């Protein structure tokens, strides 16, 4: 497996994002969809020449804080440590971009994601932004400093 950066118009990335959106809508309905802002940095995981996972980091309205978005691994590739590798690499990329803190959002119907984030050092925070009034939404943050 290797991880590399891709642009938002990359076809393999777009297919993964479409699959991620479909999974979120199946779990949460249309309110499960949220976008990624302009200027986001995308990473993909490639196994045997197949793009199997993605993640992005985007800027926020809080200085020094980036937001993890679109963490997704194709179902056939799950359970192989790909999500953990993507998360570690996006944290490294976020540090390179000048962020000293990351935040993210997941939902109550994603126990594997919750377990991953908590085991990687993310801690629950108060809901923020458009997520503040959404029941079943869990917000997390992690310091990247030191």
UniProtKB/TrEMBL annotation:
<dbReference type="Pfam" id="PF13508">
    <property type="entry name" value="Acetyltransf_7"/>
</dbReference>
<dbReference type="InterPro" id="IPR000182">
    <property type="entry name" value="GNAT_dom"/>
</dbReference>
<dbReference type="InterPro" id="IPR016181">
    <property type="entry name" value="Acyl_CoA_acyltransferase"/>
</dbReference>
<feature type="domain" description="N-acetyltransferase">
    <location>
        <begin position="1"/>
        <end position="145"/>
    </location>
</feature>
<protein>
    <submittedName>
        <fullName>GNAT family N-acetyltransferase</fullName>
    </submittedName>
</protein>
<keyword id="KW-0808">Transferase</keyword>
<dbReference type="InterPro" id="IPR050769">
    <property type="entry name" value="NAT_camello-type"/>
</dbReference>
């Amino acid at each position: 497996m290797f991880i590399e950066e891709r642009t938002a118009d990359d076809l393999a990335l777009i297919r993964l994002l479409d699959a991620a959106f479909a999974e979120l809508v199946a779990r949460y309905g249309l309110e499960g969809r949220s976008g990624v802002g302009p200027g986001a940095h995308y990473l993909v995981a490639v196994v045997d020449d197949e793009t199997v996972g993605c993640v992005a980091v985007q800027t926020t309205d809080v200085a020094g804080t980036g937001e993890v978005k679109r963490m997704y691994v194709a179902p056939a590739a799950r359970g192989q440590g790909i999500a953990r590798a993507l998360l570690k690499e996006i944290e490294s990329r976020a540090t390179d971009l000048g962020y000293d803190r990351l935040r993210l959002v997941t939902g109550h119907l994603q126990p594997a994601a919750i377990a991953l984030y908590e085991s990687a050092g993310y801690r629950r925070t108060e809901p923020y932004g458009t997520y503040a009034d959404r029941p079943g939404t869990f917000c997390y943050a992690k310091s990247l400093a030191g």
